[in-house]
Amino acid sequence: DASISEIREFVKRIPGLKQSYQSLQQHINLAELIKKTTDSKSFRDLKDAENLVLTGETIFEQLEERIGFQDPLLGVLRQFCLQSVAAGGIKTKNYTHLSRELVQTYGFEMMLALSNLEKAGLLSRRDTLWNEASGFGFARKSFRLLNEDVDPRNPRDCAYVSRSHAAGYAPLSVRIVESAIKPRGWSAVQEGLRQLPGPSGEISQTTNKNSAGDDPAAPAAASKLDNFGSEERKVMLVYYLGGVTFMEIAALRHVSRQADCPYDIIVATTKIINGDTLLKSCFDKEVLRFLKL
């Protein structure tokens, strides 16, 4: 028999319980929608093909089969580009054959599309088979991009965000951020950074205490910044020029939540992108219209 005070206390908790129930229902509905997609054959085939490419295998037969079945063009081109980037190019014989199949299946406008992808560096030819000297092959080892030992019950590595039935994949940009967080910074991964396209550098910024007195707004601004991150965990801003994917954002959030990470990580970017939007950005309006993308 509950007392009057206990009944009153329970009644006070009803709104919170109702909100928790609604949140649980939303979570279940979202999980069901996601599971419906991840259980589909097309998704599993796509995931298997991507895992093969990441581990250094080729997927030319799968690509030829997808073209033969006239699968959605963007999905086919994404795998074609992924194979090229991961292997440091595609053997000329295979490249010529797949390009011809694409043109015959999807139309002569594919010639313009393939040319644009080549100019963007997403497609290239090579006269040798896959070898570990490719930039991605080197980065995969140097930055431990694949992790087969992710514990789903106690996930500490950011590769957890993409883990399925195979090894988890840690986005390269996030591994670079993780290296910057460590005491030695990028000096510990200089060899790996040299294998990546584009220059890299570290610049240490210091505040000029004398200039703070010249600007009346400086003390107030400094106070706001001091209050933003605690003394134990400072704030790190990771800025992506060109775009960032949701996987990279999820991985950075996972890194920031770890107890050994001394930073609260904030992600800023010029755009949220995915594989489809990245490829579309390589085509002009006429190509997009002709290919119905």
Automatic annotation (TrEMBL):
Top-level taxon of origin: Eukaryota
Region spans: Disordered: 196-218
InterPro entries linked to this entry: Sec-1-like_dom3a, Sec1-like, Sec1-like_dom2, Sec1-like_sf, VPS33_dom3b
Organism: Phytophthora kernoviae
Family statement drawn from the similarity comment of this UniProt entry: Belongs to the STXBP/unc-18/SEC1 family.
Protein name, per record: Vacuolar protein sorting-associated protein 33A
PANTHER family: VESICLE PROTEIN SORTING-ASSOCIATED
GO biological process: vesicle-mediated transport
Compositional bias annotation for Polar residues: 202-211
Signal peptide residue numbers: none
